[in-house]
Amino acid sequence: AGKSSGSGASECDDCEGGKYSGGGSASCDSCVGGTHSSEGSSSCSACVGGTYSNAGAAVCIACTSGTHSDAQSSACSKCDGGTWSDEGASECVACAAGKSSGSGASECAECDPGKHSSGGASSCGACDAGTFSSAGA
After folding, report:
1. What are the counts of helices (DSSP H) followed by strands (DSSP E) for the chain?
2. Strand partners, 25
3. Side-chain half-sphere of 115: how many Cα atoms within 13 Å?
4. How far apart are CA 47 and CA 86, in angstroms?
5. d(Cα 65, Cα 109) in Å, to the nearest integer?
6. Fewer beta carbons under 10 A from the terminal one: N or C of the chain?
C-alpha cells in the first residue's frame, strides 16, 4: 500500500505526496480537494477546520485572516459582515457591541463617536436625536 509499479517492474515506487495507492496498483491516485497525503501513503487524510487543500495536495493550507473553513474543505469562505477571524480559523467570531466589520474582516473596528452598534453588527448606526456616544459605544 502506498506504492505502485508499471508492468515488468522489479520493485514498487512510493506514491508522491498528494497521491495514494491501496496496494496492487499500477499507478497512484490523486487525493481529492479537502484532503492530503504524505509520500508513500495508502490513503488521504481530511484537512482540519481552518485549513483547505486543492486536489493532489501533500499538505493543507491555513485559511487567511477574515476567512474560515470546515474540516475537509477545498476552499475557505469569507467571514460575513459583523464577524471576523484570525488566520487558520474554523469559524468566524461576532464583533462585540460598539464595533462592526464588513465581510472578510480580520478585526472589528470601533464605532466612531456619535454612532453605536449591538454585537455582530456589520455597520454602526447614528445615535438618535438628543443622545450621544463616545467611540466604541
Report:
1. 0, 16
2. 4
3. 14
4. 18
5. 15
6. N
